[in-house]
Amino acid sequence: MTALTLSTSGAATLRADALVVGVAKGAGSKAGNLVVAPGAEAVDKAFDGKLATVLETLGASGAEGEVTKLPAPAGLKAPVVIAVGLGPVPEKDDAYDAETLRRAAGSAARALKGSKKAGFALPTESVEDAAAVAEGALLGAYAFTAYQGGENKLAPKGAKPDARKLPLGEVALLGTKPRDKAFKAAAERAVAVAEEINRARDLINTPPNDLYPESFAAVATAAGKEHGIKVQVLDEKALVKGGYGGLLGVGQGSTHGPRLVKLAYTHPKAEKTLALVGKGITYDSGGISLKPAGHNETMKCDMSGAAAVFAAVVAASRLGLQVNVTGWLALAENMPSGNATRPGDVLHMYSGKTVEVLNTDAEGRLVLADALTRASEEKPDAIVDVATLTGAMVLALGNRTFGVMANDDAFRTSIHEIAEEVGEASWPMPLPADLRKGMDSPTADIANMGERMGGGLVAGLFLKEFVGEGIAWAHLDIAGPAYHEGAPYGYTPKGGTGSSVRTLVRLAERTAAGDLG
């Protein structure tokens, strides 16, 4: 992992591979000109006050995420300066919003792969700004190298990974107050949250031949021992005994049996309990309702919800939040075989309800239904489930925004506001009662499919059926932002993103502080 330090050195005296500064597009009297952002004063001085001019000569525009490298002058100890664009200059008090700083730091960190240390001279005077830069840099520095070069267990003996692909070794934040308790706490939080997001990314990126329900459960068990989290794993025998028909029905076509993993973080002074439920389909072929060609290649990411829940519980423990957080990982591999569930089969769910399976590729809602019922039995104050649930949500909101549904409008609004606060794009979605009729089954209590139009909302209505009476519940459909197939941007890498972890952690923090009632 990339290290984070609050440096006592100035930009001119820091010994590092590079210095990162921010530049923006001027406004008002400086419209059309490049403006050096706060934090880079010493670097600008080393350029005799002409840093902006030099960058303009090199074609820099200050556009958000734009990265320009140039050799450092003699007045700096670092040999390279990296200027990252922040977009337009803020209209008020030179206060760049947190997400702008987060993305800028991420873009710079990505450009510094293979470097050992870099100083970040971005705006960090406030605790909030420092936290955003730290988080963005740590997330942007992420690289998944487990199967490359010397990191690969199957590589020739003595082989070494390509150093150019390794993440930046150390992020040194300049312009902060290293001895200030608030800055120290912000740095520690950034490290804990970023490391757990990157752990979730690792899980999402791991090939399905290595990550399956049993091995995922083993990872959770090991993390529980390390961080003082109580872990309980229900294997196939326990699931059969307990009557978890959803998990068993989805997983019965695979040689890798399903698991239900419970992670319980408790605080002795906690007054509230949050239950987080994650869809953990470690590979989704669609089952008998096989996915068409071109839709299978990224289906290792169908456990992103479980990865997010796992990461959030561990982060809550590492931060010592005064709230009880229970995570439920509904793990199964959805495969076609002679043992697989068929369209037309009826499953007997843990809740006692029966479900007619009309499409075996609508499997996520089946494993979540069992987990939601089980989580409800413990009477938490609120339940949030996270899932890469429907392609319909991607059609509705695109690849970067997740949908938020809930059985309580105020709770849905809170989740949406929290997501926006931490920089995760989300949008509140309705649960229209008229769509419920489409799931009526002549054979069972409910079918796992309904109307095609509004399919993401139909899935939410299905899940709502399995939430305990009187419990506030929200459903996050992260099908769009969970896995990024395009070029990296900001702090978002190609592959698994760790979507919704920051939202869940902030929800836990707010609950601990009593901000959610």
Strand order in the largest sheet: 8-9-11-10-14-18-15-16
Gyration radius (Cα, Å) is 24 Å
Q: Span from first to last CA? A: 37 Å
Helical percent range?
Answer: 25-40%
Portion in beta strands: 15-25%
Q: Quick one: how many beta strands?
A: 20
Return the structural class: alpha/beta
Low-confidence stretches: none
Task: Write up what this structure looks like.
This protein has 517 residues and is of the alpha/beta class. It contains 14 helices and 20 strands. Strand 10, helix 9 (304-319) and strand 11 form a beta-alpha-beta unit. The model has no long low-confidence stretch (mean pLDDT 95).
Keywords, please?
single chain; 517 residues; alpha/beta; seven-stranded mixed sheet; 14 helices; 20 strands; 32% helix
Summarize the structure.
It is built from 14 helices and 20 strands. The protein is of the alpha/beta class and about 525 residues long. The mean pLDDT is about 95.
